[in-house]
Amino acid sequence: MRRVNHLATLSRAISGAAAHQRLVQGAALMSTYAASNSQCIASRIAENFRISNPSVARGVTGTVFFSVAASSLDQEVQAKESPPVEKLMPKDVVLYQYEACPFCNKVKAFLDYYNIPYKVVEVNPISKKEIKWSDYKKVPILKVDGEQMVDSSDIVDKLFQRMHPDNSVPDSDEETKWRGWVDNHLVHVLSPNIYRSVSEALESFDYITTHGNFSFTERLVAKYAGATAMYFVSKKLKKRHNITDERAALYGAAETWVDALRGRQYLGGSKPNLADLAVFGVLRPIRYLKSGKDMVEHTHIGEWYSRMENAVGEPCRVEA
């Protein structure tokens, strides 16, 4: 799916049905051209998509490549949410977060999907000096045009209401149910999985300390002491939430979500709704850890996750 990111980014930048139609028609014309110019196109593909093997580049030319590109463009244009009216868009957004926090990533999934630029302040989990100004001592904290917002689900609701003032109820009963499932069930399955073994705990803390706000000394201490501590904490969490087999619980949650889709591209139908964004957001930090790789390999969630990656698009994070 990521192989058409450059084309997908272009399609998002061009608004209107006519522009989209021209892109799809262009892809069809290019497929015809490819049939007689495969060698030239192969070299261009190798250059643009960083494919080192020429035979691989030639293999993705021609009708198949451009048909897939047109199909992916069509899917992405349908899925991506159109930006709200300019005057309704937040102007100054700052997210105080931990990089690996599932709730922080839920907020980021919403911001990315709606193309809302935001600055990030990575909070040191030991000193929390970055949020000393706030009475609220957890993350995420979102400052929107000077207003403090807390609690990931409340943040999403408030932003949605701000951007859709004529829509007094942001979600349906189904959407509400599954958003609650994310907060009350799915997130509790994650920690016992990412800290399931000593090696997985170290892998997780390597990610956390690499992306987090730590000094060199704090990074070393946090990686080894934190991984050891969370390995034992995860066993308590496992017991608290009545989990007997960590991976079975994770796979079960993934399949439960896939079943809820009932064959739809997203829970929201042709485009993601707030429940889709919540599930995607909390899974995003673990996707490329061992637990996340196992989840995709042993369940049917992978196709939906790939669609969500393309629908949400690139991060809208800007430098502070």
UniProtKB/TrEMBL annotation:
Keywords from the UniProt entry: Fatty acid biosynthesis, Fatty acid metabolism, Isomerase, Lipid biosynthesis, Lipid metabolism, Membrane, Prostaglandin biosynthesis, Prostaglandin metabolism, Transmembrane, Transmembrane helix
InterPro entries given in the database record: GLR_AS, Glutathione-S-Trfase_C_sf, Glutathione_S-Trfase, Glutathione_S-Trfase_N, GST_C, PGES2, PGES2_C, Thioredoxin-like_sf
Residue ranges of domain GST N-terminal in the record: 91-167
Tagged with keyword Glycosyltransferase: no
Localisation: Endomembrane system
Record-level GO cellular component terms: endomembrane system; mitochondrion
Gene Ontology terms for molecular function: prostaglandin-E synthase activity
Pathway this chain belongs to: Lipid metabolism; prostaglandin biosynthesis
Main location: membrane
Catalytically driven reaction(s): prostaglandin H2 = prostaglandin E2; prostaglandin H2 = (12S)-hydroxy-(5Z,8E,10E)-heptadecatrienoate + malonaldehyde
Keyword field contains Ribosomal protein: no
GO BP terms: fatty acid biosynthetic process
Family annotation (SUPFAM superfamilies): GST C-terminal domain-like, Thioredoxin-like
Membrane topology: Single-pass membrane protein
CDD domains in the record: GST_C_mPGES2 (cd03197), GST_N_mPGES2 (cd03040)
EC annotation from Swiss-Prot or TrEMBL: 5.3.99.3
PANTHER family: MICROSOMAL PROSTAGLANDIN E SYNTHASE-2, PROSTAGLANDIN E SYNTHASE 2
UniProt similarity note: Belongs to the GST superfamily.
Protein name according to UniProt: Prostaglandin E synthase 2
